[in-house]
Amino acid sequence: MARADSASASQVAEAQAASDRAAASGEQVEVTGERTEYETTYANADGTSFTVDQSAVPVRVRAGDGSWVAPDATLAVRSDGSVAPKAAVVDLAFSGGGDGSGLVDIARDGRSLKLGWPGVLPKPVVDGATATYLDVLPGVDLRMTATVDGFNQLLIVKTPQAASSPGLKKVAFSLQSDGLTVAQTSGGGMTAVDANAQPVFTAPAAMMWDSQGDDSAAGAAGVGASARTTAFSQATVASDAAVTDPSTGAQDDPTAGPGEGDASAVLPVQVGDGSLAVVPDAALLGNTDSSAFPIYIDPSIGLDQTAHTQLRSDGYTDFNWDNGTNNEGEGMGHCSSYGGYYCGPGYTERLYFQFSPSGLAGKKVLDVTFRLTESWSFTCDADWVDLHRTGNISSSTTWSSRPSNLGTVASRNVSAGRGTACSPSQPAAPIEFSDSRLTSTVSSFAAGKFSKLTLLLMARDETDTSAWKRFRNNAVLSVTYVGLPAAPTSTGVVAGTGISCETNEDDPQVIGAAKPTLTAKVKTAAGGSSAASLRVHFYIQQYSGGSWSVATEPVRPSSGYIGNGVTETDPSPIALVEGRPYRLAAFTRSYYDSGGSYVESHSTVTTTGWCYFKVDTTGPKPPDISVKLPYEECTSADCPPAGGPGTPAQFTFSPAAGDDTNASYIYKLSSMTNWSASIPGKTVSPTIVPRVAGTQLLQVRARDAAGLGQTASFKFNVAEGETAVGRWHFNDAAPGSAQPHFLAEPAPVRCRRRFHAAVLPAVLRRFVSGSLFDALRRRQVAIGFRGAAQRSAGAGAACRGRGDRASRTDPGR
Length: 813
Description:
Elements: E1 2-4, H1 6-25, E2 29-30, E3 39-43, E4 50-55, E5 61-62, E6 68-69, E7 72-77, E8 83-87, E9 91-94, E10 98-99, E11 104-108, E12 111-116, E13 120-121, E14 125-127, E15 130-137, E16 140-147, E17 150-157, H2 160-163, E18 171-178, E19 181-184, E20 190-193, E21 199-203, E22 206-209, H3 212-221, E23 233-234, E24 264-267, E25 270-272, E26 275-278, H4 282-285, E27 295-298, E28 300-303, E29 307-312, E30 317-319, E31 330-338, E32 341-355, E33 363-377, E34 383-390, E35 405-414, E36 429-434, H5 436-446, E37 453-459, E38 469-471, E39 476-483, E40 485-495, E41 498-500, E42 509-511, E43 517-524, E44 534-544, E45 547-552, E46 555-556, E47 566-571, E48 581-592, E49 597-600, E50 611-615, E51 624-627, E52 641-642, E53 649-654, E54 664-669, E55 679-680, E56 687-688, E57 694-704, E58 707-718, E59 749-751, H6 760-769, H7 771-779, H8 788-792, E60 806-808
Parallel strand pairs: 42-50, 52-58
Antiparallel strand pairs: 1-47, 2-3, 3-4, 4-39, 5-6, 7-8, 9-11, 10-13, 11-12, 12-18, 14-15, 15-16, 16-17, 17-27, 17-28, 18-26, 19-20, 20-21, 21-28, 22-24, 22-27, 23-32, 25-26, 29-30, 29-32, 31-32, 31-38, 32-37, 33-36, 33-38, 33-39, 34-35, 34-37, 40-41, 40-43, 43-47, 44-45, 44-46, 44-48, 48-49, ...
């Protein structure tokens, strides 16, 4: 029989319902209550395990009404004239024009950054996710592009004449922060951290590039090839019949980053007092060749939730890159020439993805898959792609500072994305990496061995351009798991009206039934409660022939499962031998694979110890217990507090029906370590003084000539004791509140920071005279006096013998 803890039951109810539906339908069912902006959790068809998918980019965002909607960075004009994305994971707004101080405001969970432009802004031209402010300087446009988790900021310098503007020698934005501390990173970027030093927003070093390569690459190739496009050029007539023309993609946006032949520079972000600035490269600005224009200057800021970056061996970095206007993402591998087709000048590209799944604590990881879409392949032939674990990345990571490779965790030999250029057709497709090494790595992450998981996607052969590929940023880490079990709590045998676990081998609990009722509350490790299908493994040993051996070990419930915090209570499946010593332990089991496998916790021996008991069907039964007011016994529906610490309780212990041989009784409160001395008599009425507040469990055993009998339990609630009757601190500037003549007589000894009762008459005299009342009225202090006369007697000795804890009252306090 199972009984659920109400709080735990509410936590697991939705997960259990989804698991039941998944088992019935044979398909995954989403646990919608577990949704986040980056994570989706499913109950699996086996009815026991769950899968969480964490994405490198947001998959949903909260709408204003609290519902989930698809991310949408498309800008819309608000009622106040500002423009903002329709659905983003950050609160983001661009200026609608006018005073430049409100150029952009970005916030998350009440913490915000605000950047301002040093001048007046025109009304922006809005197109999709982009707001363009024309001619913020002569011949210079400012383009603000919203993403679902941040924004990109691009200055477009259109002519050599515009490049000579004094405003471009140093571009400084005003900076205001709320709840964040902004600092420059070692890599030339920016980070904004909260009060716990956790990054909220981050920005890489700014990039600056010109357009020199746009015309030269197009002229040489005839198709405008560049590193940021999918338009590969044919340098010569193809000599390899296996290679079909890869130059079928569309020209990408030249504002996305430096391309082949473009001159570029990295610009460290300068964080000052109330400013964020970049200093453009003077050599690039000083170029008078009009073909090198426009020149682009690109600082950006985003949410530090997940991270992904492209690193290139020529120094170019694209942190938290998007998929571009052609939805093809970024490249990976060696980009040179192959089979007469041109990719790039010979650099190598790698893609990094960083995850920090928040919900894996307390989980047993069963299987892991890393998945992302391959959108383009240089040839139709499959090539090996390796997935490695590395050190962590940040917005400051560059090729020269790239993290160490910590080992290969999975590999795939694949080709996708060339469509009908291949036979059969190879459309863009999700590529899945799954391997026991990857599962082991994520298991270590779930166990807390490292805080973030960073995965590197790289070509196995980084000298072969035919292995060059493009991937989208929609990487997903998919983890299948079950909740890890923890040792049960509240384990014991039902003894009389309560539950007992006697850990003293020499004083076992006496049970009056040959098939005692066993009970335990199953538990999961912290974080595992919503993903667990549990049973309790009862383990009973018997002492016979000088050693302990297994007597029985039932697993309950025998069919179906229970959730975290559920109490399972069942009779022993076998009759136990009367008078023989027994001991009980319990384990929690968490099942998966349709119940074919399980993970078992450590036992309660490691937490509370063995529960010792013996069967005695002839000894005294649990005695009857009653109490006089103010206390009363708790019921399942009510447990009213009464009395208080130090308030005596008058109990009566009497024989249970049919018992005529009780000779004495012993008792123990839950606040007591040992049993009381024996109280002789067939019926006794001891006075018991509770010393602590809260629910108290009183246990009582009767003794006859043969020994102690079964235990009776009685719960009652002790009310809180009296709180302080007055508190005041005379350490401010209120007139008279810290005068040394506060007390009429010499300052008394104070014990444990309380006013000594001996001062009370003086306090009352000044209170009645009005001087103290006036001082307290100025401070708006309320004071109550309860039973002062009764408590004052003998109080002068309250600190005697406690010199180490006593001090003279400081009149200034």
